[in-house]
Amino acid sequence: MSMSGSRPLARRIIGVETEYGITCAPTTDGPPPMDADHAARELFDPVVQRSRSSNVFTRGGARLYLDVGSHPEFATAECDRLEDVLAQDRAGELVMADLAEQANARLAASGVPGRIHLLKNNRDAEGNGFGCHENYLVRRRGDFWNDARTLVPHLVTRQILVGAGHIAAGGETRPADDALSGYVFSQRADQMWDAVSSATTRARPLINTRDEPHADAERYRRMHVVVGDSNIAQGSTLLKVAAMDLLLDYLEHGGDLGDLALADPMRAIRDTCHDMTGGVLLERVDGRTITPLEMQTEHLGRLRDHIAQDIEVTALHTAALELWERGLEALRMQQPESVDTELDWAVKHRLLTRYCQRHDTDLTDPRVTRLALAYHDVSPGQGLRQRLESTGLLRRFVDDETCRRAVDTPPATTRARLRGAVVAKAEDLRRDVSVDWVGVRLDDGVGSPVTLSDPFRAVDERIDALLESMERSATDLPIGV
């Protein structure tokens, strides 16, 4: 399915990096049996045993590693289709869930009274933050950062659609009513401190300017979006990445968003987060004001005009635009139930509202906090996502089988296909290889590294030759080796 037009949407490499929260909860009375650092090491024990490293690439082309602060992290393979982004992101959940299941079996067998939980969220109990980052490959050109800065208003206000929902400390919010006083759009908004910067941990910018394209640096650069909630709902992830893909295409073909610049983006992102009506007034550079609803409506309108001119978009892009429209209308009419199977903040709003009504309580109840955490728990048998999807209370955009297949099968149309093939062959033949985003090398002391600088290239005779040589060398080994 495509919208009418004469030019297909330009191919773009997209990836998502997700840091997971981890905790080991006691299964008996008493304190937690291990802290987050030890729990993370226990989680990654089979990875280290197999690869002698806690930083590996998978058969599916993705990167699995322990990040700074004991956060398990999954970075999707390079994707140039929205279907692959959604499948790869869910594959990350499945990989983490499998590691948690193995770890908990080991703890039980050892008599350790604890259970590891992995949370796809953005805050721990102490208020420490961790992120979900997006990567978009763009053509290298001198005025790129001027365009990137014009995307700041979108990143500030998109949380009214793709925020994961959050119970704010101290109830600092201005809700439309008092049903869920203390509920806000985003877990991440209050953690951001700069609009555009080269720092990530210190300044926490919306967009990171560090120039690491993981591709031919003369042709490409990578736009690294640091702001963004970790999403459970596929609809939220779809809208998040599809909107940015379309906005980048709009800018690359002469579009302009500069007239919507905000006077104080960091104040605006907090004001947007804490006003559940979408109607808080944000000051623009030109002295006028605009609401988050109006900002997102304007962005959507410009994209629709852009597409109507000459662009063919995919069925999932069309679905994202339609969800964007309905999400704005839900806020405009204050009817979150119209998107409460598709957008995280609305799904969680429904769950918490019904629980509070049923038990005559509010968001300060520890049971409500546990329910909110359960929404983000990807540990087997602990989270709510599977039950919600199976009962139709959480909409799928990519089916389970496709997501399970993505664990071991990389996207077929990008460089990830080559990397995944090498990793799979090395694991099957028990050969040592060095792998990163832009190259592979057989660790035999003889072969040369193969550089893969084109992320759009899914076929390479050098990789074919490397795979054949690995196969030949395996058959040449003496019996028993």
Descriptive overview:
The chain is 40% helix and 16% strand. It has 481 residues and is α+β, with helices and mostly antiparallel strands. The protein has a domain at 414-476. It has an eight-stranded mixed beta sheet with strand order 4-5-6-2-8-13-12-11. A hairpin with a 5-residue loop joins strand 4 (55-57) and strand 5. Keywords: ATP-binding, Ligase, Magnesium, Metal-binding, Nucleotide-binding, Ubl conjugation pathway. GO terms for molecular function: ATP binding; ligase activity, forming carbon-nitrogen bonds; metal ion binding. Pfam families: Pup_ligase. Its EC number is 6.3.1.19.
Brief characterization of the structure:
With 481 residues, this protein is of the alpha+beta class. It has a domain at 414-476.
